């Protein structure tokens, strides 16, 4: 048995609907600009360009229902996304086989410090300071594919204090789930426990302390998060 210099921190894990077992999180990949309308609102061409990804940290995923506003930002935005959880992995996965690697799904928020992200873009530096900060990915429990199937269409909606801010449909994704899995596997060796956030529809915008966000994706539960 390995001996460590100090006690290992607890591994990040998410609850799974219908069981007391936990889904262990290994890595979190996030695709950028995967809905045409969102690409346009961010000032980019929505044509089907090659996908690009960035990463959040495993312990950024937070199922507590609370989002702590980061002290170093003054412009934090909501981005509702479907999360895909993998049960197996590998390299160079064919698109036609990719869905066999999926364990389940969830509703997530890719919270973004837009001011810090913009500063990093301007300086030509990585985005982590604006994307991978603490508790930056509120998320639901994991919904196993064995119960919800493999959703490729369905309404996506985010409300803030009861007002609709974002709405779209999963069928509007430019790069579909099997394509994302296949593409990622060309550059990374995917593995059980990997999570993919699949992009956000148009309507991203700021939140303030005291706001209540309600994120829903048809066929899954509702993610309710309070900004504190």
Automatic annotation (TrEMBL):
Gene Ontology terms, MF aspect: acetylpyruvate hydrolase activity; isomerase activity; metal ion binding
SUPFAM superfamilies named among the record's database cross-references: FAH (SSF56529)
Protein origin, superkingdom: Bacteria
Name of the protein in its database record: 5-carboxymethyl-2-hydroxymuconate isomerase
This protein's UniProt keywords: Isomerase, Metal-binding
Fumarylacetoacetase-like C-terminal domain residues: 28-228
Pfam families: FAA_hydrolase (PF01557)
Organism in which the protein naturally occurs: Falsihalocynthiibacter arcticus
Organism classification: Bacteria, Pseudomonadati, Pseudomonadota, Alphaproteobacteria, Rhodobacterales
């Amino acid at each position: 048995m390995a001996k460590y210099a100090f006690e290992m921190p607890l591994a990040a894990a998410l609850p799974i609907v219908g069981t007391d077992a936990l889904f262990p999180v290994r890595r979190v990949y996030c695709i950028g600009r995967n809905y045409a309308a969102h690409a346009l609102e961010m000032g980019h061409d929505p044509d089907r360009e090659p996908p690009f990804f960035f990463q959040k940290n495993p312990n950024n995923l937070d199922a507590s229902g609370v989002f702590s506003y980061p002290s170093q930002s003054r412009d934090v935005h909501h981005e509702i996304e479907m999360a895909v959880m993998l049960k197996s992995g590998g390299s160079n996965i064919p698109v036609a086989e990719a869905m066999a690697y999926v364990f389940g799904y969830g509703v997530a928020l890719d919270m973004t410090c837009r001011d810090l992200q913009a500063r990093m873009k301007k300086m030509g530096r990585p985005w982590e300071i604006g994307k991978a900060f603490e508790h930056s990915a509120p998320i639901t429990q994991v919904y196993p594919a064995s119960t919800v199937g493999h959703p490729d269409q369905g309404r996506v909606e985010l409300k803030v204090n009861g007002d609709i801010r974002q709405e779209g449909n999963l069928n509007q994704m430019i790069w579909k789930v099997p394509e994302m899995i296949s593409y990622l596997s060309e550059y990374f060796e995917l593995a059980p426990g990997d999570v993919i956030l699949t992009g956000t529809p148009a309507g991203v915008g700021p939140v303030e302390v005291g706001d209540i966000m309600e994120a829903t994706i048809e066929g899954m539960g509702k993610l309710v998060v309070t900004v504190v």
